[in-house]
């Protein structure tokens, strides 16, 4: 696996790519993709970075693992390819946007349209073996994506971090709260949403209010 990532990230993350753990991770991922069906496609592993260059990133959404069903994962957290049925969490995300912003429910669950506006849709683990949720966890990806969050926190200002659910909320410790904006809520999964921890968080309108106050273009969610 050659690291094919948008060139704007090569400088900020250069130290990570040179470390032993990342080389071990690369070897592991190569072996997995050779021996098993894995997702997303190799060219999409770093898609979140390719669609949201370092300098353009202004919002960060943190997920946990890629979808592990055929044809779903496209390298962006919560996102699926065009024409793929929307998973339950994504349905609840779109429902919240409907009520928060009054926007119609979208046909496509492909969130590249968000990423291209500077929303980094970052999974903590960037690959997974088919039909085996969490199969590539604790192999080095989390160390790498934690470094991504720390680097963004250190090098940039006034980012909006959306931390949904217990796993994502733990990442708050990597973020300088004096420089950035952190919005937290329950996870959009049905289990959390049906208990009242997701709907009504208004994260999408709040994000745009923060961006506009800083003179930045709001996200067309």
UniProtKB/TrEMBL annotation:
<keyword id="KW-0234">DNA repair</keyword>
<protein>
    <recommendedName>
        <fullName>Uracil-DNA glycosylase</fullName>
        <ecNumber>3.2.2.27</ecNumber>
    </recommendedName>
</protein>
<dbReference type="InterPro" id="IPR002043">
    <property type="entry name" value="UDG_fam1"/>
</dbReference>
<dbReference type="InterPro" id="IPR005122">
    <property type="entry name" value="Uracil-DNA_glycosylase-like"/>
</dbReference>
<keyword id="KW-0963">Cytoplasm</keyword>
<feature type="domain" description="Uracil-DNA glycosylase-like">
    <location>
        <begin position="50"/>
        <end position="211"/>
    </location>
</feature>
<comment type="similarity">
    <text>Belongs to the uracil-DNA glycosylase (UDG) superfamily. UNG family.</text>
</comment>
<dbReference type="GO" id="GO:0004844">
    <property type="term" value="F:uracil DNA N-glycosylase activity"/>
</dbReference>
<dbReference type="InterPro" id="IPR018085">
    <property type="entry name" value="Ura-DNA_Glyclase_AS"/>
</dbReference>
<keyword id="KW-0326">Glycosidase</keyword>
<keyword id="KW-0378">Hydrolase</keyword>
<dbReference type="Pfam" id="PF03167">
    <property type="entry name" value="UDG"/>
</dbReference>
<keyword id="KW-0227">DNA damage</keyword>
<comment type="function">
    <text>Excises uracil residues from the DNA which can arise as a result of misincorporation of dUMP residues by DNA polymerase or due to deamination of cytosine.</text>
</comment>
<dbReference type="GO" id="GO:0097510">
    <property type="term" value="P:base-excision repair, AP site formation via deaminated base removal"/>
</dbReference>
<dbReference type="InterPro" id="IPR036895">
    <property type="entry name" value="Uracil-DNA_glycosylase-like_sf"/>
</dbReference>
<dbReference type="GO" id="GO:0005737">
    <property type="term" value="C:cytoplasm"/>
</dbReference>
<feature type="active site" description="Proton acceptor">
    <location>
        <position position="65"/>
    </location>
</feature>
């Amino acid at each position: 696996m050659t690291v094919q990532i948008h060139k704007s990230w090569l400088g900020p993350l250069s130290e990570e790519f040179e470390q032993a753990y990342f080389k071990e991770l690369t070897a592991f991922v190569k072996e997995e993709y050779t021996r098993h069906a894995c997702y997303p496609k190799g060219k999409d592993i770093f898609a979140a970075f390719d669609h949201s260059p370092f300098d353009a990133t202004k919002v960060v959404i943190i997920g946990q693992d890629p979808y592990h069903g055929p044809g779903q994962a496209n390298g962006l957290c919560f996102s699926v390819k065009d024409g793929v049925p929307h998973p339950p969490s994504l349905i609840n995300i779109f429902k919240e946007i409907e009520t928060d912003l009054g926007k119609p429910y979208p046909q496509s669950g492909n969130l590249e349209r968000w990423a291209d506006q500077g929303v980094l849709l970052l999974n903590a683990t960037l690959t997974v073996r088919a039909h085996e949720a969490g199969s590539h966890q604790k192999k080095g990806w989390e160390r790498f994506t934690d470094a991504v969050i720390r680097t963004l926190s250190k090098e940039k200002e006034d980012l909006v971090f959306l931390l949904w659910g217990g796993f994502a909320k733990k990442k708050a410790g990597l973020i300088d709260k004096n420089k950035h904006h952190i919005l937290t809520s329950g996870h959009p999964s049905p289990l959390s949403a049906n208990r009242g921890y997701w709907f009504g968080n208004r994260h999408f309108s709040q994000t745009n209010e923060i961006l506009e106050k800083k003179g930045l273009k709001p996200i067309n969610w």
